[in-house]
Amino acid sequence: MTATAALLAFTLAAAILTITPGLDTALVLRTAAVEGGRRAFMAGLGICAGCLVWGAIAALGLGSLLAVSTLAYDVLRLCAAVYLFYLGAKLLWRTLPGRRVATGASDAPAAVAPTSASAAGWFARGCLTNALNPKVGVFYITFLPQFIPAGVDVLRFSLLLAGIHALLGVLWFALLVAATRPLARWLSRPAVMRGLDRMTGAVFIAFGIRLALEKR
Predict the structure, then answer these.
(1) Whole-model pTM?
(2) CB burial class (10 A; 0-12, 13-18, 19+) of residue 17?
């Protein structure tokens, strides 16, 4: 396989994986609907940064530790599970009776939660969501090598593939954020925001529990 063929094949495979619904999509959609487009896009950038972190780790060969060490995998897996459970519980806590979900007039198109993290905080949250997920690491360790042709610099080509994956993620998340803008007024309603928080919080907790109970 030539380098060009490898890049095209990886881009197609990565694009399919990117648009497949999952935890990342849920995080960006919920953030766009409740927190606003800027914070949602920063969360998406953080998620893509997490992919780059794993891509660099896999390219340097350090990620192979997860493939051979059950202890390293389990430690990272439990940390990710606790983090996801924390995010989910925090979202559900916001929906309890008596707690305010948003500020501003009820018809304001961009009303957001007052105690939410800053844009930088959402970037860090998105990055941690991927960087703490050992399944993403194992994915990079097993997936990237299949698209590295003979005769290329493995480190540089691996980083290039990770960069392509991250770029596709940025484009996808930008599309998701843009898709929520026409619905901003409706999504800003307190009842809708509570429903989104409950649904996303439940998804996070479910992913966290699944990750905690997962066995290799």
Answers:
(1) 0.72
(2) middle
